[in-house]
Amino acid sequence: MDVYVTEMDQVFVDTKFEFGYVTDSQGQEKLIYMDEVGTPDSSRIWDGAQYRDGVVVEKPKEGFRQMLLNHFPDPDILLNKDRMEERSALARDNALPESVLIGEPLTLSANPKAEIIDILRSQYGLID
């Protein structure tokens, strides 16, 4: 199902979610997502006006990438894999500008691992 983002006149077509599990300091397994959600880097986003005219024009990832590079004072942090500690701090300490975010807050279930397994089993028959 397409989601229209009215304010930005875009069609949010789909997105990928990258999840993983980590063990917290109390030894409990926690679900985390490992990538931004609802941005052109993780999603397909089409121009709303052109879509209504029957033309699909995808908002390219490169524009989003360039916006990030221009937004932060030292873009080399985002480009240089030898600066991963600084990149982690940049991500932790700086929110993306609201103008580039779309969608709604991500709500996690009480037991996301069980929910994912249940969906894979019941809806897709992928797990016995």
Task: Describe what this molecule looks like in 3D.
The chain has 128 residues and is of the alpha+beta class. It has a domain at 3-59 and 97-122. Helix content is 32%, strand content 19%. It has helices spanning 48-52, 61-71, 76-79, 84-93, 112-122; strands at 3-5, 10-15, 19-23, 29-33, 43-47. A hairpin with a 5-residue loop joins strand 3 (19-23) and strand 4 (29-33). It is flat, with a radius of gyration of 18 Å.
Q: Structural class given helices, strands, pairing?
A: alpha+beta
Q: In one word, what is the shape? A: flat
Rg over alpha carbons: 18 Å
**DSSP helix count?**
5
Percentage of helical residues?
25-40%
Describe the secondary structure blueprint for this structure.
Blueprint: E1 3-5, E2 10-15, E3 19-23, E4 29-33, E5 43-47, H1 48-52, H2 61-71, H3 76-79, H4 84-93, H5 112-122
Antiparallel strand pairs: 1-2, 2-5, 3-4
Highlighted features:
two-stranded antiparallel sheet; three-stranded antiparallel sheet; 128 residues; flat; 5 strands; alpha+beta
Outline of the structure:
Helix content is 32%, strand content 19%. It is an alpha+beta fold and 128 residues long.
